[in-house]
Amino acid sequence: MDSESNNKSVTDASSTDESVSFSHVTAVATGWMLDFMFVSLCRHFQEGKHDEFNETLSTLEGISQSSSLKGDLHDEKMMICAFLARVMHGKQLDVQFEEDDRVMPLMSAANIWSKLEKTVADEGVFRNVTILLLVQSVSVCLEKGQKSSAVSALKWFEKNRELPQNFGTKLSTIVTQGETYHPFFTSFSFSRLLEATQSFLDAYLEKNPSDYILKAATEMVKSSHNFEGLEDVVTQDSPLSKPDDTSDEESSEDRKKKENTVHLRTKRKLLSTKMTDVWKPDICTTPFVSLRRISQNELSQMISEKSMNASPIKKTRKPPQKWTAQLDKYLKNGVKRHGQGKWSRILMDYDFEGRTGTMLKDRWRVLMRTHEVG
What we know:
- Helix content is about 55%, strand content about 5%.
- By secondary structure, it is mainly alpha-helical.
């Protein structure tokens, strides 16, 4: 009897599956997954979490290659992801996103940003980000002590982008004088670029929520009390199961042990962090892998032709060495600008040679103990 019931269930399921095209179902599900990864990427960008951002970007890249994804909205989101990747790595001048090795991350970001104008609801935000990309492309070069690169960046903008009135002349004067910390750069800082970009993302996500899976997952977590990455799996001996007739003969201590018997499973990451090196370019000369979904006629002019054919990037950075006087100076300037505890923001402003926020915090404590800072 049970066998007949099971066979009937399988038959019913098969007939249900045949009532819709599986390719259509796949397209919808893949679109939801892309939306979830897109929202996650935006969140990691906002929080300045480099590792999580790179891991999510790597996963999103794989999803974006699905042939079931079609439509301008998907391409638009992938273009935004490409833009965020370039801004996130804007301080790493040795990272390449395009064939021309003279085009640094923020310069490449400016290329993409010009194509995103129709997605920006506020013209003021679009203009601000455009100016900030220009100024920071030059400022970052001076911060790294690469005056020639700053000159090259400015010439590139003059040739490829329409510069705001008087900005080209102002920046040219600053570069000639080599004023790394000119007040002009403070007014158009990298932090302001991040804030303006976040304003754009907030407005875009309000118009295109992309949070179906996020909401569903949130409700699932609430209903299952799945907090802090742990799942409570109730065993057959739990209080939810009916007690057998021998329960009265058991000692209260044994019964208490049974009632508290649950298995805790640590939530595992879907992908190993070792698989995300392609999106963690601390220092590299091999070009980045660009995102495949931004490959239509207009987008192909913006993204390198070698995007999907580039070999995986290998890190060439050596393990962090001893703290130098220059690195200490970067740390002090960063704390002065952003305050203690803002290690992620400080990491974005200077090249700390592969060090993490935790390392910055530990070094700051050392400087305080030795009375090198107040």
